[in-house]
Amino acid sequence: MSEKPLTTVRIKIQTRSDGTVYISSDDMPGLWLWGKDHDQVFRSIAPTIEELYRFNKGQAVKVREAPCSQLRRWFVHECQQ
Fold first, then answer.
1. CA 64, CA 50: separation in Å to the nearest integer?
2. Of 25, 66, 9, 77, the residue nearest 33 (C-alpha)
3. Which residues of the chain register pLDDT less than 70?
4. Rg from Cα positions in the chain
5. DSSP secondary structure string, the chain?
6. What is the pLDDT of residue 56?
7. How do residues 22-35 score in pLDDT, each as one tens digit?
8. How far is residue 26's CA from residue 10's CA, in Å, rounded to a whole number?
9. pLDDT for residue 6
């Protein structure tokens, strides 16, 4: 039985002086989220990546947060064939 392919999407997190958090990624064109409610912005990352894969590549994927250090937040997806 072969494993499903995984892709890592590294995100950039910037917090501005007014408290707004900005999320983007060089790995995922079109990923650009922002807001002052940090929890809401972070909860939006996985569903947004899923929608971008569906829209940009025609792929249905399942996104989950990958285990890593507390200094970084990474998300990965599994292709659903």
1. 10
2. 25
3. 1-5, 67-81
4. 13
5. -PPPPEEEEE-EEEE-TTS-EEEE-SSSTT-EEEES-HHHHHHHHHHHHHHHHHHHH---EEEEEEP--TT--EEEEEE--
6. 87
7. 999 999 999 999 99
8. 7
9. 78
Q: Are 24 and 32 in contact (CB under 8 A)?
A: yes
The Cα diameter of the chain in Å comes to 50
Rounded to whole angstroms, the Cα distance separating 16 from 22 reads 8
Q: In sequence order, what are the residues at sequence separation of 6 or more whose Cβ sits closer than 8 angstroms to the Cβ of residue 52?
A: 28, 29, 30, 31
Give the position of tokens 């890593």: 68
